[in-house]
Amino acid sequence: MTLFHRQSGQLRAWAxxxxxxxxxxxxxxxxxxxxxxxxxxxxxxTRSVVEVPPQDVSHTGDYIHVLGNVAGVDFENKxxxxxxxxxxxxxxxxxxxxxxxxxxxxxxxxxxxFPDSQIMRSVDVTMPYTQGATIDYPFDAYKSYFEIxxxxxxxxxxxxxxxxxFLGKLQSIELIPTVRLDTDDLYKIAIEIFTxxxxxxxxxxxxxxxxxxxxxxxxGIIAIQVIRKYRVSDEHVLTLGITTLFALPALRETQPGIxxxxxxxxxxxxxxxxxxxAISSIMILMASALRWKEPCIKREIELAHKQHDFQxxxxxxxxxxxxxxxxxGPFSEYQIKKKR
Length: 340
Hints:
By secondary structure, this protein is α+β, with helices and mostly antiparallel strands. 43% of the residues lie in helices and 27% in strands.
């Protein structure tokens, strides 16, 4: 019977452990899989890709295809870099894709010249943002605008139709290009680009802010316990707040692409968290310093002498012979100092 109960208890313990493992695994899957799915959808976001066919193409099919791919974003300097590749079509392209005529392409304030009898080279163009500031991180948003226009180099009035494929896929960044076609000039393509942090970046930044708040609140509660509840402040409690105070800036830097201290995310949490942890650490240290009492050896000696005198008086009244002399006794000042 005892063996049966023992096996039943082991079976129940195993079932509980298995149930907890299933619950923890299911919770992790319920959180990780949807977030990964959202991240994958960001990578395949069709709003980051725009294609514009050539307008008013001649019977010979002459036009220039422009492929623009965003290579990087610099929010601190308010600009982004685009890698452009050009492909001539129709009578503009000779053997092996070389140009039959000289062509100039205007990109924003940059004019690129491509001589004839050569292949159109790829170029990197840096374009500025006209709106937006990093102070709003992680909710900062930026806007930019540029135009594309091509014509024959020696005939400035002879415009060439242009087609465009623009790709704006970057890690932790969401770029949404919008085409603005000019009805008065079909050969010109205008692009307006809206840039912001991706949803996963914003979510992770807010998660880090939440962690910093939880840490600061926990240390604040410990400080209140030390002050009000006279909690024992050992070396671990004394160093906990100071260690967290120096670790918090490193935790802040884990937010993707966060600028220097002073953005919206810092006002939302970092400033207050540093203040709470610093004040709590000072409270714990001050409480430990003010409540410390120097051990009084003289008081212990006096108490020992009083106890010895009491025992001597009691023994003398009872007239019981002692096997050892009372003078000095086991509570003498010398023995107390020696014991300490």
